[in-house]
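Run log, item B.
One chain of 236 residues. Sequence copied directly from the ordering sheet:
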Amino acid sequence: AGRTSRGSVGKMISYVHFLNDMNAQGLLDIKIAEDFWIDKVNAFFAGKPFTLKLDPQLGLRAIVRNLIAQAEQRQKENSGTMYAGTVLQHLVGAKLDIVMQPNSPLTHHNANQNDAKDGRTGDFDIGDVSIHVTLAPSEALINKCAENLSIGRKPIVVTGRKGVTVAEGLAENANLSQRIDVIEFEQFLATNIYELGRFSQAERSLKIEEIVNRYNDIINEVESDPSLLIELASGK
C-alpha cells in the first residue's frame, strides 16, 4: 500500500500485468517480489540525508537531540553501521573547526579509523588535549585516557546523556574521576553555539548553518556514505 503520482499510474498498471503474466506461467513468488521492493524502499530512505530542523520554539539541545535520534533510528534499521557515533564525531570536529577559526589545527579521519594506528592520542588532538568522542564509553576508553595522562595530556570524553553516567562510573572505578573531564554532547555543542552566536537568534542560526556546512564538507572528505550528510530545515 502507498501513494503514487499520476505519472506513475501507467508504470504501475504495466507492472501489475507483468506480475499477472508471471503468475499465469507459474513463475511468480509474491514473497520475493515484496522483499525486492521493501529492500528498494529501505535503500531509498537510507540514502536520504539527516534533517536538522531549526525550530525556534525548541532549545538547541532538543534540536541536536532530534538529529542524533534520527541517526540512532537508522542504525536500528541498518544493523552493523554506526550512524550515530559517526555523526557525533564529525559534528564535534566541525564545531571545533569553527571554534578554532581561522586556522584550525585539526585533521579529520574516517570514523572507523583506529586513532592509535594513526599516531593519535584521541579522536582529536589539540594542544595538550586529547578528545575522545563516543556514545558507548568503555573500560578500553578509560585505559586510553590513562595513557593520555601518563604522557602529560588532558583527556576529555564527549558522549551522550546516558554515556556521561557510564563514563564517570568507569573513571571512578579506575581512580581517575578527578582527572578526566566527561562532557555531555548536547551541552558541548549548544553552549558553543550560544556563545559563537553572541546570544542572538539570527547569529545563532548562522553559526548552526556554518557548523552543518563544515560537517558536510568533512563527510565528503573522509566518509564514503552520502546518507551521513545533514540538510537544514526551518520550522517544526
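Observations after the first pass:
- The helical segments are 9-24, 30-46, 60-77, 83-99, 139-150, 161-173, 185-196, 201-222.
- The chain has a mean pLDDT of 90.
Flagged for discussion on Thursday.
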